[in-house]
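Protocol step 6 of 9: fold each sequence in the batch and record its structure tokens directly after the sequence line. For illustration, a two-sequence batch is reproduced in full.

Sequence one:
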Amino acid sequence: MSQRVELGCMGHLSVSADCRWSRHTRVGDHRISSVGNYYPGHSTERVTIGRDRYFQTMVFPLKPDAEGEDAEDCGCGVVADWCEIDSDGYQTAGEAQAGHEKMVEKYM
């Protein structure tokens, strides 16, 4: 079984700083990142991310530790390829929370 590490930083999405909800977990050589509740800039209106969804989870492969340093030194690893290998979308934070846990279990 792979080691599970919960991380405090955002794990993907270039506009994630404007997301008000996130989860980020490293499982072995995989980054599992969930974001949502996107309010761009100083907007008071929530905007979808992806296609007709307010939350999403994506999984990215990581380089083996020997292939490079973790640039942030936070334990999240270095992404080998930003093309996700798995993903799902949700409408609510509860669905996103459950979906994130489902992805973590899948990659454990």
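Sequence two, same batch, same settings:
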Amino acid sequence: MAETQNVAIMAEKASTEIFDVFGWRLVGPRNKNWACVERERHDRKRTGTHPSDAVFRYQDPWTGNETYVTSDLKSYAKGTIQPQPVVMALRNLSRSVECAGLSEEFRRLYLDEAKTYKVHGMLFVYNHDGGYDEDFNATLEDINPSQADVAENNRVGVIGPRRVIYLNSIAKDLLLAQTKKGEMGTDAEWGFHYPNLQKIRFAKTISGVANLETLLSPWLVVHYNKFTLGIPKSGFLVYYDGNGNSVHEFQHLLDYLFKYQLATDEMKISIRMAMPCADAAALFQKAKDNYSEDYWPVARVSPEQVRKRMENITMSAVTSLVQRFSEVEIGMV
């Protein structure tokens, strides 16, 4: 399962081009081994180190704390994405997360210890030949949690090949939305939207950062204010990772929009899907019709109000983008 240097660089380029749009910043050296302080327990007696292909940093919108994501960037061909190497990568990454806050070398290289911080882990699996079409989530579900050896209170996220395409599509669509002819325009104020959960004391409702948990969620919500002749107009872009195979999944999404009061009389909401099925548009309209009939008596609003709000909610497909990098081209840089 060894990767060539150039193929590994492909994963690094793929990750940095995506996460920059989500407010993550690279810190410290890349492709660095740093000292393990639990060599026997972490099975590091021979090497004595843990690797960090890249470490990202962002301020978490929920806690206000600095979050560091030590990342294992894998670049695999179609036939090499198998459960066993994924298990091994998860176990090694989990142990490095556990060790990161304890290792003096890691702290010196990457952390700002003057601020409260947390270290998470991310396994990023990039399919460099574009041929992988299996269900990576099914591979994860077959892994026993004990095999990954994630310590209590630690978090490790896994971004598989399909999620890489999805996040890349969102990132590029957000950049297009900020162009002159884009949905938000060039002068829009925008950020990632978080529901107002009062149990989270320091939470921001709008942030320039999409945290790791958000990037792994079924949908990602962007709020914007665009200005036309100096007059602000608000809206939401809702990126949804589903295929839209059923009315029920769209009704679940609509329930979120109404429950957290995103859907109002004047608010324009654009649901954007990177991988919709052929019938998604028809099923979405059916979901809106069904939801309209069920919602207005419960919410104590008129059917006309609900219909007006529904008219402001649209669904469209965004261009699904598979990042491709030439191994030869990278080698010539």
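Proceed to step 7 once all outputs are recorded. Observation for sequence two: The first helix runs from residue 5 to 19.
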